[in-house]
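#struct-queue
[09:14] JT: dropping the first one here, sequence first, then the structure tokens:
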Amino acid sequence: MTPEPDRVSSHQSGPAHFAYIDAVRGMAFLGVFAVHAALLVGKFPGQFLLAEGGYGVQLFFLASAITLSNSMSARRRIDPYPILYFYLRRLFRIAPLFWAAMIFYWALPRVMPHFWLTEWAPNGVHPIYFVLTALFLHGWHPYTFNSIVPGGWSIAVEMNFYLLFPFLYRFLGRSLRKSVVFVLASIIYINAINRCLPWLRHLSFSDISDSVWTFYKSFWLPSQLPVFLIGFLAYHLIRNDSIARLLRVRFWAGCLLCSCSMVILTVLTGREQGFIPGYLMVVLALAGSILAISKGSLNWFVNPAICYLGRISYSCYLVHFAALGITLKLLGLHLTESLPHIDTGHAAGNVSLFLKITAIALTLTVAIATATLHLIENPGIAMGKKLLSQISASRDRQDVAA
């Protein structure tokens, strides 16, 4: 596969941009979209698999670890201040659209069914929640975790991972062996964390409902950290020459993808919990799937449509909740806490309604996300690049003066 030019490279030559990462992000968004659309209607065949589309967020996390590792590998040799530049790039890439989403969902709360956000803060949303969310600190309390921007919990996890990334990269970014050791150690770590969580809840969050606590403990950064560590491992395996030669052969890449798919289906349908948590088994298989498509031999997965969706996936993720809410209004459907989904009374009707909602909401999502990409995301990235250019120019002037 020929690398494409990096769309967000610095003023100097930056890291390559790979189409398969766009494809991974596109598939990740479709998974997230599918689960939220499927929850709006009554039961139909295959719905339980669509409900597992939430693993699309973990797929985003894997893609993030791989992309950032590639970027850091290239930029640390050309950036005068690699860690500072890393943080500034991430801030200008993520914050403008997220802050705009905060304003939008605050100003137009009825664009979605009201209980979609209030269920995460049953005692009401307080002003401090907005402050914590704007600072990306909302990932450290159950009531702020997901109560301002729908799906905002994943942005909190991602941004807090960014704080750790330069230091993790220093230890893991150059060593496959260390990455393997850290992934194995994370299995022990996650079991230890799970044993401590009941004590943490009793000490700090004893008044929180079971549903809010279960969601929080499953998805806060300490529980998701192993996912990012697996992303580091995938990064090394993708760069391994021996594995690359093998995966350029369509047969072996297909075998790996099929094997990973079977592992995913086995875990999702069996739900067996052993020493290795089931969700980590799924994440490992997802990482293997990324590996399978990374060398271009399975090019039907890396097609223009899915790649475009991947390029606008951040916007899609933040706006698709509103698109689903608008779609319900267009169809004259009204959901409440006592009626959280529409059941037509038979499976065929539910499938038809699901497909109708999906077609309308996905079209709206892509249209709105394309607009926000050009109006908010790209200008934010451009501002970041301009700031970095000014910092570099100032440093160059100091060097000349010295």
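[09:21] JT: and here's the second one, same format:
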Amino acid sequence: MQKNNPFHFEYSYVSLPDTFYSFVKPELFPKPELVLLNKTLCNQLDVVVENEEDLLNALLIKQTENETTSFAQAYAGHQFGHFTKLGDGRAIIIGEHTTKRNQRFDIQLKGSGRTPYSRGGDGKATLRAMLREYLISEAMHYLNIPSSRSLSVIKTGQPVYRETLQEGAAVVRVMESHIRVGTFEYAARFGKPEDVKTLVNYTIKRLYPELLDDENLAVSLLRKVMQNQIDLVADWMRVGFIHGVMNTDNTSISGETFDYGPCAFMNSYHPDTVYSSIDHQSRYAFGNQPKIIKWNLCRFAEALLPIIHENKEKSLALAQITIDEFDAIWEKKYYGTMLNKIGFATNNSLYYELVDELLEVMKKGKIDYTNTFNDLSKVLISEENTNKNTEFSDWIKNWKHIIRQSIGAEKAIKIMGAVNPITIPRNHLLENALDEAVNGNMKVFERLLDVITKPYELQDGIDDFLKPSASNFEKYYQTFCGT
């Protein structure tokens, strides 16, 4: 390993059977150029970058001409409900970086060229798509939502052929783990009988060591992942985020949001909102996300069935008992989250109807999701409701009365301020920033990035960042997977 490598790499994942991965080198780009470096994340990871060349050498592993330590992961997944054998087609894990606090993170290079799992693809990525992932993953992090992070974006110096000829790039993605539901589906469908057990043991040891002494590790892992995914999707709903491609291979066992392809943030509220160009049946619409994560967890449970219990009927019964807990856990988590958004500290089912009524009013009136919840604090302070919608005014009147009788305006405002973002990466602002960036002007992108890293602060000069896009933009706006 080179002298000035800023990473401390280990490779625990390759202790698994080799069916789970393939050793592969990233393509050596002719003229790599660092576009963005996340210095805050570097500090958090104890990664000291003394110069650009050391970082590029470490990521592109030019120092390992005779030995390949980087690898692509094999996995499967249900994509839009259909099972497919997959794998990292354009991503390579350079290594597992360990910090001074003994935290372990995958350092993955995405857009680094073909792998054994590329399935006819070129394994590359566009500058636009990688800048998009960088900004949205950072936005999610600062919204206090578990997410992959982006350490850097690197221009490859190579053109990429998509609808048009575009500039190539790679993003350095950081995650606690890239193990996904699809990894377990792969083990169950294509591995040996003992591979699922081996994967469960490795996953628990790496991610959830507190479960190691539990009687049934598979059931404990299922329950843990279910809780984490419920918490995650409730957070998505809190900020109006639509993942857009909730396939099982994009459902992380660690509970992190990742794969920011056709994702977007909702403007005017409607549960049927879809932006993804490939989601023709609205499978992954905003309001469907809870149902889909439950469906994905059922696929996870199916993959675990061989090791839950040696008796098939007993195994199925134990898995079903766990999955049957989903609805009650989801309802409590979701309404607890939404009650926080309207100022309540406790999860009182008596107030669930208030949430439902507000969302119905917002849907009918096509009212902006982010601004509506953010403005509730102003309504409590100023007594003024600028929205002339009669149903909304009636709801506000009833809500204010309940708030004052229960928790009080001051406490309610504090609760709402912690969970209702003032700024999000509005779709039209993001697209404009990307347009400018790929044409050589990074200033607009950097300004948007700066604003979204302080989403709960009322910053100066951000009026334009608070406005929803024009209705025509929303009507025709589509997002794409970026492959």
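[09:30] RK: nice, looked through the second one.
[09:31] RK: Residues 217-239 form the longest helix (23 residues).
[09:31] JT: good to know. Residues 427-467 form one domain.
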